[in-house]
Specification:
This protein is of the alpha+beta class and 150 residues long. The chain is 33% helix and 41% strand. The chain contains four helices and seven strands; from the N terminus they run E-H-H-E-E-E-E-E-E-H-H. A seven-stranded antiparallel sheet has the order 1-7-6-5-4-3-2. The protein starts with a strand and ends with a helix.
Length: 150
């Protein structure tokens, strides 16, 4: 299993950051490897909400069903996928700070077979991808608001 933790502070209110991140359909805007996210279930996001994602990872196109398995508005959420070639869980903790919102994201990838053999390469790629994605998320949310207020 591969585990990666990412902590970042975004200079925006927790309600805004939570709403944007938990709407998984926003993912392709800030995650370059995420090609598409389609919502399967109707209604507001919450426990049981399902999405289908298409991601490019290590040159492979991976499709997976993702489900929200924990949801506490403006505080925490978790998603999980048992489908696809790399099952995973990802948890998000949102904390208000004087600078805005601190997000702590912990990702667990369950590798086996060929993916298990490639674990060191996958771990490095995941870390680089998350570092880039969360930098892009920070820039997107902080810049979008700055341009709206200009």
């Amino acid at each position: 299993m591969i585990t990666n933790e990412k902590v970042i502070t975004i200079n925006r209110p927790v309600e805004e950051v939570f709403a944007y991140v938990i709407d998984l359909q926003n993912g392709p805007e800030w995650q370059s490897g995420l090609l598409e996210v389609r919502r399967v279930t109707q209604g507001s996001p919450g426990v049981g909400s399902q999405f289908v994602s298409v991601r490019k990872f290590l040159g492979r196109k991976l499709e997976a069903v993702i489900e929200i398995v924990a949801y506490e508005p403006n505080r925490k959420a978790a998603i999980k996928s048992d489908s696809g070639s790399v099952p995973f869980e990802e948890s998000y903790l949102f904390e208000p700070t004087t600078e805005g919102t601190r997000i702590t994201t912990i990702t667990h990838l369950h590798t086996s077979g060929f993916m298990g053999l490639a674990e060191p390469m996958i771990a490095g790629s995941l870390k680089r991808e998350m570092d880039t994605a969360y930098g892009d998320l920070k820039d997107l949310l902080e810049t979008r608001v700055a341009s709206v207020n200009s």
